[in-house]
Design goal:
Length: about 190
């Protein structure tokens, strides 16, 4: 494989990463080729030593997503980390999907319930005193505030749990990559 073929496939695999990050990665691999050629190796030898550019791009995307998540920890970074990890461990998805989907589904359902409880608490707080709630006006106000507090608690708890789950997913992917990398590096290149 020539330098241009390798770099073309690598750049196509890095599409979707921030432009600056993809440019830095491509520049690093251009330097690998320059150093290899300066040392007397052919472009094909350098490309073979670097491995499959498609697999390399998946690994780099996963690592960039995980790094971004540890720095920013916002929904966009979480999505980038999760999608990068999906690309890296597509086979693991079949194993982890039956475990992960119910957990994320339960978290999402409790979060949605928390939102509806908060809204119901606001309704009771505003309309309860006028509807003649049992216990009088004070009971309606306290019930509304209590329901709103419960909704906030549920939402906050699920936000923390979601962060922990994403952190655990990133940790698992890094562990997976560290365990598999030596085995993948020792495979003969075609």
């Amino acid at each position: 494989m020539t330098r241009d073929e390798f770099m073309g496939r690598l750049r196509r695999g890095l599409v979707g990463l921030p432009t600056m990050t993809a440019a830095e990665i491509a520049s690093d691999y251009e330097l690998h080729f320059e150093d290899g050629v300066a040392a007397g190796r052919t472009e094909a030898e350098v490309a073979a030593a670097l491995g499959d550019p498609d697999r390399l791009a998946r690994e780099l995307r996963a690592e960039a997503g995980a790094r971004r998540w540890t720095q920013e920890q916002n929904p966009s970074a979480a999505a980038g980390a999760v999608f990068g990890l999906i690309g890296l461990g597509a086979i693991d998805i079949l194993i982890l999907l039956p475990i992960v989907l119910p957990v994320f589904g339960a978290v999402l359902s409790v979060l949605i319930c928390g939102v509806f409880i908060f809204i119901a608490g606001g309704f009771v707080l505003v309309a309860g005193p006028f509807l003649g709630a049992p216990g009088g006006v004070l009971a309606a106000l306290l019930m509304g505030v209590g329901l709103m507090g419960l909704g906030l608690f549920m939402g906050g708890l699920m936000a923390v749990l979601t962060k922990w789950l994403i952190d655990a997913t990133v940790w698992y992917a890094r562990l997976h990559y560290r365990v598999l990398k030596p085995a993948l590096d020792n495979q003969p290149q075609a």
